Structures are given as C-alpha cells and as structure tokens.
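Batch manifest, entry 17 of 40.
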Amino acid sequence: MLIDGLAAVLGGTDPLDPPRPILQSDVELRARLALLPRDSERALFSELPRSLLKAALDELIGEQLIAIEAERVQIAVPRPSDIARELANIEREAGGRRVLVRLLARLDASQVELETMALRRAVISAFLRANLEGVNVVTDAEIDARMRAAGTSYVDESPEAARAAVRADLEQEALTRNIEHWVRVLRARTRVRVLAYASP
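Output type: structure tokens
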C-alpha cells in the first residue's frame, strides 16, 4: 500500500520563503522508478530498502532546491516540447510505457505525477543551461565512445534510435553531475528539514 506523510520540508523561514513539502509518496514513486528497469517485479511489489528511499529523497531534495532557485531567478517556462522530451526520457528510463503504467496503477498514482516530474526536470535543465552553458553538450565523439563501450547492447535498435538513446543517457549523466554541484551550493543557504528515511 502506498505510504504517505511528509518526508522533507524545504524553506519556510519567512513569508517570502514558503515551505515546499516532499511527500513520502513522492519518494516511493521515485525509488520504484529507479528500481523498475533493473528488477520490475521487485519494483512493483516488494518492500523498498531504506537506503533506496533515502537516495530517492536526496535526489528529490536536490531537484526541488534547483527548481526553487530557477523560480527565484525567473527562468523561462519550459516549452511543451521540452516537457514532452523529459516525459519520454522518464518512460524510456523506466523500461517502457507498459511497465510504467503498471507501476502507476500499483501505487494508485496518476499520469499527472509523471508530468509534474517531467516539468521539474525541464525547469532544472533550463536553469542549468542558463548557468552552465556548454557543460551539458554531448558530442558525437562521446556518443561514439559510449556505443563502442556498450558492445552489442543496441543491436536490436536502428542506428538513429541507438544514438538518440545514448545521447539521452549522456545528457542525463551530465545533468546529474551538475545537479550535485548546485545542490551543494543551494543547500548551504536553504533550510532543509528531513523528516523520514534518515540513517538510523
């Protein structure tokens, strides 16, 4: 059964800094999404380890911190095509639309939650592009190197589809590195109260 309650609260130190909650249901969805491509049955039905839930919460805190900063500096609203691309990446990373629909049904979650996640990722991407121009650029040489290292992993896909998948993976890895940088900067000046999944 889906858990809920507060997992963390960001901000809330003054009237101009409203509290931003992260729910335990958000954390569980993120954790199960991360597990889904590796072990779909466990992701769908098993109890999740605290370490995975904590990692998912840390990721959500980082994303929320950057989204707050993007709002503060008035980053342009992402285009519908940007959000659609992020939604497609979420589906691909999860292992496809079919298994993702099963997960949403299992958690009594909705497509709206995925769209909210895609919007936040698009906002973060826009923020990072504005602040770290060129850092997220993936070159053809990087794609070639990754495909050589992957061996036969993409033999069932067309060359165009394989390159698009590799590009998306490399862009996501660059995004993750940049998120880690900004989280360190922003967490130092934003109040973060963690209410669940702390190490025992």
